[in-house]
Specification:
66% of the residues lie in helices and 12% in strands. It is α+β, with helices and mostly antiparallel strands. It has a two-stranded antiparallel ribbon. A hairpin with a 2-residue loop joins strand 1 and strand 2 (74-79). Helix 3 packs across helix 4 (50-62).
């Protein structure tokens, strides 16, 4: 069965939604929506160990949701696209009803 362009787009959307279907990653994205963070700062804010935060950040970055940049001797992360912010705000509005 050949994959059509539309099917590939749905496959990509499904993978993206699977990545977002994790409470910790949503919390991380919500924090990064407000400002950039180092992994250590996120670990404190999320009450997670640094290795867990690093795994979540790696997955979010590979998926194109976030990007990193160097600042001095540390690495900081930020949301890559405004569309993620809009999606997060929409989900928050719907959950607050």
């Amino acid at each position: 069965m050949s994959r059509t362009k539309g099917n590939l787009a749905f496959d990509h959307a499904t993978k993206s939604l699977d990545i977002l279907a994790n409470r910790h990653r949503l919390v991380i994205l919500n924090l990064l929506e407000k400002r950039d963070y180092s992994p250590e700062e996120l670990a404190i804010e999320c009450r997670l160990d640094l290795s867990s935060v690093s795994q979540h950040l790696s997955l979010l970055q590979r998926s194109g949701f976030i990007t990193n940049f160097g600042e001095g001797n540390s690495i900081r992360f930020k949301v890559k696209e405004q569309r993620i912010n809009e999606l997060l705000k929409s989900m928050q509005k719907k959950s607050l009803g």
